[in-house]
Amino acid sequence: MFEHHHLPLLTKAAFILRMLRHGLIALGLVLCSLFIGIIGYHGLEGISWMDSVLNASMILGGMGPVNELHTVAGKLFASVYALFSGIVFLVIIGVFFAPLYHRFLHKFHLKMEQNPNKP
Fold it and tell me: What phi, psi does 117 have (nearest 5°)?
């Protein structure tokens, strides 16, 4: 997926395409996670679709639920979904920033190869 450290740095156009591809993957992860939350809140707690979207969005965004939960299943789902959302957040950040991090390290490594005697 990423070029080897002996290969030249990607062109700006190729790098932008890579960033767009990773951004779409990150967006897909957000939408899938949001869908899981919407279905869970609607199915287990019986909340309306719009309130389910709101609750799932708020949990996924790290803000917390809006509606009061009444069922044990809904409360368990909300706690698991909150933990899941925290992990998904870290994964999404990793997926989105991986090309930037790789480009930085690749550029740094190329500079080190060009000037091997300088610290």
Answer: -90, -15
Contact between 52 and 42 (Cβ < 8 Å): yes
Convert the pLDDT of each residue in 49-94 to its tens digit. 999 999 999 999 988 888 899 999 999 999 999 999 999 999 999 9
For domain 12-114, give the CATH number. 1.10.287
Among 91, 112, 118, 97, smallest CA distance to 28 is for 91
Tokens 């994964």 -> residue: 91
What SS3 state is found at 2? coil
**Distance from first CA to last CA of the chain, Å, rounded?**
30
How many distinct helices (H) and strands (E) make up the chain?
Answer: 3, 0
- CA–CA gap between residue 54 and residue 65 (Å, rounded): 8
User: pTM for the full model?
Assistant: 0.80
Query: Which residue is it, tokens 């790789």?
Result: 102
